[in-house]
């Protein structure tokens, strides 16, 4: 038995937390059964040495009689800013036994005195960059835009490199760097990259929030004497370039940098190096960089040693002090984007003379790594795309063109390069005018090697799923490759054409995301973006950050905006953490009030509806179901959750108001859309009937009739769905929650469209925008991936208990469907890993499960109570079994690893 996996504010050893109310969490690791914490003691010290000797000079909680091991609040004396603290914890369990102390963890508080000075090559005023969110429709003169395009060295769009030498003369203890380079930066210290993130800092609405990153520097990374800080700047979403492909154009200003480095010496003194007039800059070898258009690099412009000591920077220019971004400077608490996987060339074709197409085997978001040898001045152009034209060349028609990477050689042996400030969604790389592996034509450069880098957020995986059904296994793989491709600074729709944070994905795919990935630190970032994007009148736009204002329903649609109300509740359900409900309650209330202002007698009648619903029609606006039915049901969803939040947070007056409003909206909805004779809602479509069932808007006496109508429609269509991006989740979960999992199984266990199997048969490696990939644009969307929730909740059977948020108690209730012979899966909850695995073997059902310490689970299996059930070899007594209405048997287990055998 030991205490491990210590986190502070949901992060392992965070570096810049607020001194206000930090919270601490830990997991209990034990092979014992029925382990539950009865008390804990948490100690914090100012040094690791003091912590090791149990000298808690900052805080000693004492022995606290409590089972709480998640989000335990600090109640000690006021913490200091920019200070490192060390902590550990021990717990007591039954029979008053205490564990050993955990290993030490630490946290560092954020500074209070940054007072940033932003520097760069050109001021915003001198750059003549356009104002506005979408300046191709703004009053920015065409000739000015063209001048920017023509002037390839224009400082407002050019990547620059900045350097600052400084001298160290004392023995160093450590150093800390706070840095934000906009749009993106790469930081080096004495020529070595600091950190391993890509595209830092993460995207925000820079008029509202600007993230800075914090890095700890070891003493060994600094030298006595001269040291050099080097920074490379790129445009990112901060400064969009109107050249090559671009979805929209927005500029918050030219590339800019803020940095502060504090060096702590062994004698207790400090040295501060920060951005000021003493820094210098030069144009970097990156001659073009655009998130949407690609990146060009001229190796002949490299200045060897520019970011190291004793470099002669006499020809470099003095920086200019720039206007600071308008947004509030906040420490980035979200995990960074990193290179998480790499793929080698899988196959090579030559569709035309001199043109090679490299199949990298996986559609992904990222960029290539090129190894090449050739003559000085030769250029290798890499076109990337997720599909091929009819002639076998790379196609970008569906994903945004032109997009490419250019590398110009310096002619010095084997050269290696990869982009730094642009990425794209692709599987294929096309290169023309080059040899491959061997130099057959001496006049051409030779490609020595090519790799494909898969970038996505480093939050880490939380779950796993496998089964005897290959369609489901491959579907899980397709969806997760699409999720990873779009798991960037924001949850993007696609990694090429738009790269925008469409909000409906966050809640409609929310459970699937949470089961698969550690979203504990990521969802708060989504909520910050939502709060930043919310308008004065309370409207939450469809995308956040809102880099472009589309207008109309593409800006304001309830199914998208209601994410601002649903996400804090989903966070509470799965993590047991009510902090988002507390912090963003004003955002939730303001949005619900906005929808109320748009309602006519309780009915909201605008929006996109069940976007991309399936049928013979072209995908887009809801065609099968009324827009108003969709909008009003999501209005009700928001009101209902707001009322619950008010009650939970003891906002009694609001609770009464919104509970009454929920009743009123439900009544208006049923009056408008329910046909009392046919027992159908709206058009009788699958979405029309599923969403009111999901939201419990159907009167008890009508529920079975509505459910029967829904199932009859599915059967009449040969078990095919007609729902879309919005309706899929409600359809899937209504079937699952009402004992109709065999219907779900038949809906998805095939290779036809609409269905995941069709995409598998088509040979794709990521989920696409439409059920038939040939009809859609993007081949890398995860918006239709709502079946992940069903995989985990129904097939694996790991189900949260709404009455006990955060999996303190949960249900293990797997469904055994069709001809499936086994399913296994795991979910790493905040208390530890939950595992659930079943297998049918001859006349036995063998069920294995793992229940983390400090939790309990109700196991529910599809066997009758007269079945012989053995748990870890011992027969389960009848007194511990409960016969459920659906004929299944349930029993409660404490923590531990169990093997349950049932004779069928």
UniProtKB/TrEMBL annotation:
Highest taxon, organism lineage: Bacteria
Residue ranges occupied by any Alpha-L-rhamnosidase concanavalin-like domain in the UniProt entry: 354-440
Annotated ranges, domain Bacterial alpha-L-rhamnosidase N-terminal: 170-341
InterPro entries: 6-hairpin_glycosidase_sf (IPR008928), 6hp_glycosidase-like_sf (IPR012341), Alpha_rhamnosid (IPR016007), Bac_rhamnosid6H (IPR035396), Bac_rhamnosid_C (IPR035398), Bac_rhamnosid_N (IPR013737), Ig-like_fold (IPR013783), Rhamnosid_concanavalin (IPR008902)
Residue ranges of domain Alpha-L-rhamnosidase six-hairpin glycosidase in the record: 462-794
Enzyme Commission code: 3.2.1.40
Annotated TM spans: none
Catalytic reaction equation(s): Hydrolysis of terminal non-reducing alpha-L-rhamnose residues in alpha-L-rhamnosides
Gene Ontology MF, one: alpha-L-rhamnosidase activity
GO biological process, one term: carbohydrate metabolic process
Residue span, Alpha-L-rhamnosidase C-terminal domain: 802-873
UniProt keyword terms in alphabetical order: Hydrolase
A UniProt-annotated Pfam family: Bac_rhamnosid
Protein name: alpha-L-rhamnosidase
């Amino acid at each position: 038995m030991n205490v491990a996996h210590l986190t502070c504010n949901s992060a392992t050893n965070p570096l810049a937390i607020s001194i206000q109310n930090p919270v601490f969490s830990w997991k209990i690791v034990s092979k014992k059964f029925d382990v539950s914490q009865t008390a804990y003691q948490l100690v914090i010290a100012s040094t690791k040495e003091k912590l090791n000797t149990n000298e808690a000079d900052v805080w000693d909680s004492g022995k606290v009689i409590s089972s709480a091991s998640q989000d335990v609040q600090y109640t000690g004396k006021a913490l200091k800013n920019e200070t490192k603290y060390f902590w550990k914890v021990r717990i007591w369990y039954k029979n008053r036994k205490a564990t050993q102390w955990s290993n030490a963890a630490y946290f560092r508080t954020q500074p209070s005195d940054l007072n940033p000075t932003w520097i760069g090559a050109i001021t915003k005023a001198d750059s003549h960059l356009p104002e506005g969110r979408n300046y191709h429709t703004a009053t920015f003169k065409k000739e000015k835009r063209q001048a920017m395009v023509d002037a390839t060295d224009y400082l407002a769009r050019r990547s620059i490199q900045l350097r600052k030498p400084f001298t160290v003369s004392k023995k160093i203890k450590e150093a800390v760097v706070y840095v934000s380079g906009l749009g993106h930066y790469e930081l080096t210290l004495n020529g070595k990259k600091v950190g391993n993130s890509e595209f830092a800092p993460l995207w925000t609405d820079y008029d509202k929030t600007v993230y800075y990153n914090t890095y700890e520097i070891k003493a060994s990374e600094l030298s006595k004497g001269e040291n050099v800080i080097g920074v490379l700047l790129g445009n990112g979403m901060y400064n969009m370039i109107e050249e090559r492909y671009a979805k929209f154009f927005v500029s918050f200003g030219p590339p800019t940098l803020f940095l502060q480095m504090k060096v702590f010496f062994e004698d207790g003194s400090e040295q501060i190096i920060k951005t000021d007039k003493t820094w210098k800059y030069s144009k970097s070898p990156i001659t073009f960089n655009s998130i949407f258009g690609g990146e060009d690099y001229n190796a002949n412009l490299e200045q060897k040693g520019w970011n190291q000591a004793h470099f002669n920077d006499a020809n470099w220019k003095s920086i200019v002090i720039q206007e600071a971004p308008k947004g509030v400077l906040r420490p980035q608490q979200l995990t960074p984007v990193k290179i998480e996987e790499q793929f080698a060339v899988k196959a090579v074709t030559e569709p035309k003379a001199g043109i090679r197409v490299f199949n990298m085997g996986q559609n992904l978001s990222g960029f290539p790594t090129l190894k090449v040898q050739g003559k000085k001045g030769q250029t290798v152009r890499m076109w990337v795309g997720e599909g091929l034209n009819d002639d076998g060349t790379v196609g970008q028609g569906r994903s945004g063109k032109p997009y490419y990477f250019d590398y110009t050689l310096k002619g010095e042996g084997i050269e290696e390069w990869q982009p730094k400030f642009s990425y794209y969604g692709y599987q294929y790389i096309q290169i023309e005018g080059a040899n491959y592996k061997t130099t057959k034509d001496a006049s051409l450069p030779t490609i020595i090697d090519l790799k494909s880098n898969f970038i996505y957020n480093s939050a880490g995986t939380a779950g796993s799923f496998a089964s005897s059904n290959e369609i489901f296994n491959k579907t899980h793989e397709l969806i997760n490759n699409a999720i990873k491709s779009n798991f960037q600074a924001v949850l993007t729709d696609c990694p090429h054409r738009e790269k925008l944070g469409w909000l409906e994905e966050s809640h409609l795919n929310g459970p699937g995301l949470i089961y698969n990935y550690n979203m504990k630190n990521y969802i708060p970032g989504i909520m910050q973006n939502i709060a930043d994007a919310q308008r004065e009148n309370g409207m939450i736009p469809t995308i956040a950050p809102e880099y472009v204002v589309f207008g109309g329903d593409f800006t304001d649609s309830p199914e998208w905006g209601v994410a601002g109300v649903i996400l804090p509740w989903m966070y509470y359900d799965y993590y047991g953490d009510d902090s988002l409900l507390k912090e963003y309650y004003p955002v939730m209330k303001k949005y619900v009030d906005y929808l109320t202002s748009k309602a006519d007698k309780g009915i909201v009648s605008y929006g996109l509806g069940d976007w991309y619903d399936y049928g013979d029609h072209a995908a887009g606006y809801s065609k099968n179901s009324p827009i108003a039915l969709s909008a009003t049901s999501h209005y009700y969803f928001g009101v209902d959750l707001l009322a619950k939040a008010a009650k939970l947070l003891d906002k009694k007056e609001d609770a009464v108001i919104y509970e009454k409003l929920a009743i009123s909206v439900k009544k208006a909805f049923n009056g408008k859309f329910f046909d009392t004779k046919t027992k159908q809602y709206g058009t009788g479509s699958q979405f029309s009937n599923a969403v009111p069932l999901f939201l419990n808007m159907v009167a008890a006496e009508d529920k079975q009739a509505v459910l029967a109508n829904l199932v009859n429609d599915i059967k009449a269509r040969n078990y095919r769905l007609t729902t879309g991006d919005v309706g899929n989740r409600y359809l899937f979960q209504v079937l699952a929650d009402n004992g109709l999992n065999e219907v779900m199984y038949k809906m998805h266990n095939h290779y036809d469209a609409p269905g995941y199997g069709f995409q598998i048969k088509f040979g794709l490696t990521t989920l696409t925008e439409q059920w038939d990939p040939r009809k859609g644009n993007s081949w890398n969307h995860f918006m239709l991936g709502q079946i992940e929730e069903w995989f985990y909740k129904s097939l694996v059977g790991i189900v949260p208990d709404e009455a006990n948020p955060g999996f303190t108690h949960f249900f293990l209730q797997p469904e055994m469907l069709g001809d499936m012979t086994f399913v296994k899966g795991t979910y790493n909850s905040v208390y530890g890993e939950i595992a659930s695995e079943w297998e049918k073997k001859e006349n036995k059902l063998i069920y294995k499960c793992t229940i983390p310490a400090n939790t309990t689970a109700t196991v529910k299996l599809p066997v009758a109570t007269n079945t012989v059930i053995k748990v870890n070899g011992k027969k389960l007594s009848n007194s511990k079994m409960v016969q459920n209405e659906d004929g299944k048997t349930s029993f409660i287990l404490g923590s531990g690893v169990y093997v349950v055998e049932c004779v069928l």
